[in-house]
Amino acid sequence: MKMKKYGLIGYPLSHSFSPGYFAVKFEESEIADCRYDLYPLTEIAEFEDIQDCLGINVTIPYKEQVIPYLDELSEEAKVIGAVNTIRFLDGKKIGHNTDAYGFANALSPLWESKKQPTKALVLGTGGAAKAVWYVLDQLGISYKKVSRTKGDITYGELTPETIKEHHLIVNTTPLGMSPNDDTCPELPYDGITSDHYLYDLVYNPEKTLFLSQGASRGAVIKNGYQMLELQADRSWEIWNS
Questions:
Q1: Contact (Cβ atoms closer than 8 angstroms) between residue 82 and residue 75
Q2: What residues does 145 pair with on adjacent strands?
């Protein structure tokens, strides 16, 4: 029986969600001929050394850097400009983005019967942020890109008034991720109210300091765990379609 190989590239990969998730998926589906490995690449050029895989997930910092190493991109990945899923098919490496699918389906239930926010702040400008921008465009939510040096506005330029005007705040940075769970984006948190929604792509710890700051002021909060599950399931569908 030939083993079907899947895996994850990124760096570092010490606290990865994916291996455990796919191990459970293989066990529950009674799939005995699959394995999911970690590939902690110190530089993206090492991607070319990966052989005999059917599918690869991509995480920080390679969602954009991996694109030149691919043969094709899905239409969605082209628009987003970032890849988190690669399918190896007929000698070609095809890039997809399932982050957008995961984020869209995890985000919308936040407001359920309430009114969808019209303005958002997206913290960070990396590959994950690009998927968030794409989804917000699809939902018709205007947004400002927040970063230290590039984007529409810097962290230092944010005021409580800016926060009050933007009822959805999405953290796409690794700030607050374990083991550095005593960190968070530098925001004027006093501008947050019970009309706000705070979404953190970080899932470990379950409640980051960013989310705790929002919860203490009455905001609706959500971490990135469901998004990870959804994007992983969508990756599996792509690899086996």
A1: no
A2: 122
pTM over 0.90: yes
Beta-bridge partners for 176: none
Contact 180, 204 (CB under 8 A): no
Q: Domain 101-226: give its CATH code.
A: 3.40.50.720
> How many angstroms separate the CA atoms of 216 and 212, rounded?
6
Tell me which residues of the chain have a pLDDT lower than 50.
none
Q: Are 195 and 167 in contact (CB under 8 A)?
A: yes
- Per the CB < 8 A criterion, the answer to whether 98 and 115 are in contact is no
pLDDT at 32: 86
Rounded (5°) CA angle 140-143-147 = 155
The CATH number that domain 4-97 falls under is 3.40.50.10860
Domain ranges of the chain: 4-97, 101-226
Q: Which residues are catalytic?
A: 63
